[in-house]
Amino acid sequence: VNAVRGLAVSDRHPYMFSASEDKSVKCWDLETNRIIRHYHGHLSGVYSLALHPTLDVLISGGRDSCARVWDMRTSKEVHILGGHTNTVASLIAQDAHPQVVTGSLDSTIKLWDLAAGKPISTLTNHKKGVRALVKHPREFTFMSGSADALKKWHLAEGKFLKNFHGHNGIINTLSVNHNNVLVSGGDDGNIRFWDWPSGHCFYSTDTVVQPGSLESEASILCSAFDVTGTRLLTGEADKTIKVWKEDHEATPESHPLQWKPSREIDRY
């Protein structure tokens, strides 16, 4: 029995996919609660999963330094997206070009041509491993999270746009809603809320471990907004799932905006 490192639920089929450190990727039928398909091919633990929004294609990334593209229905391997030199820890799949983006612990991000199975470009701006990627739901931009900084990119050609500074440790998870609120969760338990366009961190807090847990278990492992975008769910190292909601009593007087635009231009 090994840890489950990734989950993905299909919007078009009653299927859920799971990835585990035991090298397996499984497809679950949510109507019968049974495993109906196995995807074999990874040589080591599988750490990330993504579903293509319009094609019956599943992408998984693992500790064997590659991402594998699967036909969801036949369980056959379509492509091996190789080129990273360390664990592929994060994935983005979309229906526009480039259709796959991978982030790796080798500190690089690769944009892929899904039809050809070849990389379009490699982004080397990060100095530390990239453990988290998230795409904006409306803009053609995405964010990458690493211990050195959060970086905002334009998706088409991988053009660098902006750095978001504030964290002092490893970033495990990123989430964004339709209201341009970006949430980043760190290995040290720090959660930061950012304004997507400006990069301003308007709120920061540290999670509190449940009674009986060690202080070292104050770590944010995963996060997601609900459908409304008003509630945030976090999975944490103290074996809890926490739900965060907006403070409806907050006012400009109780939470003043203290933001001064930086005059420095981020070049990388």
Chain-wise SSE layout:
Blueprint: E1 4-9, E2 15-20, E3 25-29, E4 34-39, E5 46-51, E6 57-62, E7 66-71, E8 77-82, E9 88-93, E10 100-104, E11 109-113, E12 118-123, E13 130-135, E14 141-146, E15 150-154, E16 159-164, E17 171-176, E18 181-186, E19 190-195, E20 201-206, E21 220-225, E22 231-236, E23 241-245
Antiparallel strand pairs: 1-2, 2-3, 3-4, 5-6, 6-7, 7-8, 9-10, 10-11, 11-12, 13-14, 14-15, 15-16, 17-18, 18-19, 19-20, 21-22, 22-23
Structure description:
- Helices cover 0% and strands 50% of the residues.
- The chain has 268 residues and is mostly beta strands.
- A four-stranded antiparallel beta sheet has the order 1-2-3-4, with no helix packed on it. Strands 5-6-7-8 form a four-stranded antiparallel beta sheet, with no helix packed on it. The protein has a four-stranded antiparallel beta sheet with strand order 9-10-11-12, with no helix packed on it.
